């Protein structure tokens, strides 16, 4: 569909801007995650993402993986001189690096990140388990686990990552009881936890016409995602009450900005200028 193609292109552009900004600020682990997500979105056809991934991996000492990323960039574009130079220079370092234990990762279909009004939402995990989250990357599958009236997020190994916000959990549990099915994945890692995207993958006929995630935006415009800063947490001593209005607890301020991941056009232009100069974070050091 044209809509999905446009959404994937938008996500690719957004993640590219975020990856460039992360590299400019030497946030290499984040840059690795963002470029890996771009590669997943494009089915491994983005040579620039492989080039940036190689630079980020090289910065954190993962020389063998960095050389492999530069090799993939060369397969896509044999004229990429930066990739060729770094691929050659990393040969000796990669040979001297101790073999890393392979950790299988379960990434979701990139289409999960395509917005669908009323069918998807993003929320920050409550009570995040930072040790388990530190081993996750953006795009990895998250399993939703029910315990009574609570909804928890686990990784595929069964380790607890955190808890879904109570009001959202109650709403989704009602739909699950009605036969709906949902998939989830890490949307982004933050300094103190993680955000997950939850998407309706099957709607039971009995739930037809009932959105899992109530759209609410400026002047009624659809906004399928919850913004992290606007998710409200109730005190533990208070009873969690179900919402009485479709838009309660969701983003209604069209002028609000995300606290992480946004890149201004000026910053992006500066990043592009740096890419063209010797000072680019992705050029050979």
Q: Remind me, CATH topology of the largest domain?
A: Alpha-Beta Plaits
- The DSSP helix count reads 9
Shape: elongated
The N- and C-terminal alpha carbons lie at a distance of 42 Å
Radius of gyration: 21 Å
Keyword list:
285 residues; Serine Threonine Protein Phosphatase 5, Tetratricopeptide repeat; 2 domains
In brief:
38% of the residues lie in helices and 14% in strands.
Please render the helix and strand layout as text:
Layout: H1 2-24, H2 28-41, H3 47-59, H4 63-76, H5 81-89, H6 91-96, E1 120-124, H7 130-133, E2 141-147, E3 150-154, E4 160-163, H8 166-177, E5 181-190, E6 193-202, H9 265-276
Antiparallel strand pairs: 1-6, 2-3, 2-5, 3-4, 5-6
Helix pairs in contact: 1-2, 1-9, 2-3, 3-4, 4-5
Would you give an account of this structure?
There is one protein chain. By secondary structure, the protein is α+β, with helices and mostly antiparallel strands. It folds into two domains: 2-99, Serine Threonine Protein Phosphatase 5, Tetratricopeptide repeat (Alpha Horseshoe); 110-230, Alpha-Beta Plaits, CATH 3.30.70.2330. Helix content is 38%, strand content 14%. It contains nine helices and six strands. Strand 2 (141-147) and strand 3 form a beta hairpin. Helix 1 (2-24) packs across helix 9 (265-276). It is elongated.
